[in-house]
């Protein structure tokens, strides 16, 4: 069974689809495509079925990532099939842990930037939605930096399952 990771932000049109796209590329580069499944969702359903924000798509494609996406809302029932739920900010972390059906499920929720060894004390990836393209570019930089450490952690979990 693959190791399953889901990135979660507010509406699933900016930060979480960006993290999903970047991390999927890291997983493929590491040769783990068949062993790790990557997706994303939002804490709310306002944008369900919508594509990613055009600024997200633009920044992703300019950096060589896939921008194809359809938004959806995270469901508590998903905890049973997920191994790791990656929140993009502290508000998402709290909301997801409250949504978790069990304490074990709540332990599956982590902040993305907690995987970045050089991140400052503020581990939130700021929401770029109400700003310009520069906010989306900053978001991409944070996501890319944290994805390296996240890949190391996920790779260790996958190898541990195989042992």
TrEMBL record:
Catalyses which reaction? Answer: O-phospho-L-tyrosyl-[protein] + H2O = L-tyrosyl-[protein] + phosphate
| Active site positions | 9 (nucleophile), 15, 127 (proton donor)
The molecular function terms of the Gene Ontology recorded here are: protein tyrosine phosphatase activity
- Write the record's keywords in alphabetical order, separated by commas: Hydrolase, Protein phosphatase
* Keyword Hydrolase annotated: yes
| Residue ranges constituting the Phosphotyrosine protein phosphatase I domain according to the UniProt record | 3-153
> What InterPro entries does the database record attribute to this sequence?
LMW_PTPase (IPR050438), Ptyr_pPase (IPR023485), Ptyr_pPase_sf (IPR036196), Tyr_phospatase_low_mol_wt (IPR017867)
EC number, as in UniProt: 3.1.3.48
Q: Does the keyword Hydrolase apply?
A: yes
Kind of enzyme, top EC level? hydrolase
Family, per entry: Belongs to the low molecular weight phosphotyrosine protein phosphatase family.
Q: What is this protein called?
A: protein-tyrosine-phosphatase
Gene name, per UniProt, is: ptpA
């Amino acid at each position: 069974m693959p190791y399953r990771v889901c990135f979660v932000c507010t509406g699933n049109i900016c930060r979480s689809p960006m993290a999903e796209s970047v991390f999927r590329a890291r997983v493929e580069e590491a040769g783990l495509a068949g062993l790790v499944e990557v997706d994303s969702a939002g804490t709310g359903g306002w944008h369900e079925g919508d594509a990613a924000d055009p600024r997200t798509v633009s920044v992703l494609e300019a950096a060589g990532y896939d921008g194809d996406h359809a938004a959806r809302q995270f469901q508590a029932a998903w905890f049973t099939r997920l191994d790791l739920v990656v929140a993009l900010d502290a508000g998402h972390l709290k909301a997801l842990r409250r949504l978790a059906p069990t304490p074990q499920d709540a332990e599956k929720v982590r902040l993305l930037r907690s995987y970045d060894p050089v991140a400052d004390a503020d581990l939130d990836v700021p929401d770029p939605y109400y700003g310009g393209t520069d906010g989306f570019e900053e978001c991409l930089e944070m996501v890319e930096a944290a994805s390296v450490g996240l890949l190391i952690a996920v790779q260790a979990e996958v190898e541990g399952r195989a042992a």
